[in-house]
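job 3f2a | input accepted
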Amino acid sequence: MDFKNNRYVKLSGVPWGAKPNDIEEFLIDCNIVGDPVIVRYKSGRATGDAVARLVGKSDLEKALKCNQKYLGKRYIKVEETDGDTFEKHFSESIAFIKEPFKLPSLDVRCYTQADEAKKQEVFRQADSNPKECVRYNEEEKMQEVGKLPDMNDRPKYTEVKIHGNAFVKLSGLAWTANEKDVRKFLNDCKVHEVVITNNDKGKPSGNALVQLDSKGDVMKARAHNKEHLCKRFVNVEEVEKQQFIRETERDRKDYSSFHVKMKNLPFSATETEIKALFKDLAIEEVIMMRNKDYKPSGKAMVEFKSEDDQAKALLCDNKPMGSRSVEVNKVEKHDVKTIETQHNFH
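job 3f2a | predicted structure (346 res):
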């Protein structure tokens, strides 16, 4: 199915007991692809939001006309959203399988692929044991088979890891907080990028946006909510990709994914010593930077063969070399070109 012309809407204020068919009736004049998705917390409780994929622009216009109309006894806010948001909630709605529920020879991927025969087998087996609960995807649908237990007695679910980018926002940061502080704060998370945002006057806003590797890292990051960073409580919340892009657009720098810049090196430092510091990493090139008199500057730039190696190299920040603690930082792409040009010149 071609989804390129589809549009997406988010409904807020949805009654907790609402089902996908209630959303369909609310958007009665709209052509909906699959079933709407009721957004839930990790525990399974409804958040009060729902998302739906619409066939096209005309359906979006009809859906937006439903804004501030009633569903049951509640006003519903209807607004346009994006495909990434829909896919995120859709994926989360199918990402849990109850641990005791075992299906023979059934790959977890059948929950996201249009494999009707396997899914019908899921339905048949689940129907034969109504005490078990399975969440699944039929084309673009999410249904529940069997009986869910009471919320206060809900069993634990095993998460099926969904790879991809994930994002959190830290707020309440001290103005002196920097990227290294944030990475140390989220030391148990795989961090791809940290952007400290500034206000309209160019001063730190007290916020940072962080790109993480997976939803599992988001859960770890949220576990640090209300913990101290630089003597201040920090709020940690998950954000969407679009919010990350929007809030970091002005302050985000174009860093190289393969280079690091080293500072505070001993003037006697050699390429061999630098390679020893990164002994387990694959290095492409080391450039020993010199000042205008062609004397050692205490700086170097190192190019790695992979992004993972660069990320590991950054963890070597403040490691000792001789009597000094060496700084290891990211380097912007335009600085890489400048340093390479100067090096080649010399």
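job 3f2a | The longest strand covers residues 204-214.
job 3f2a | closed
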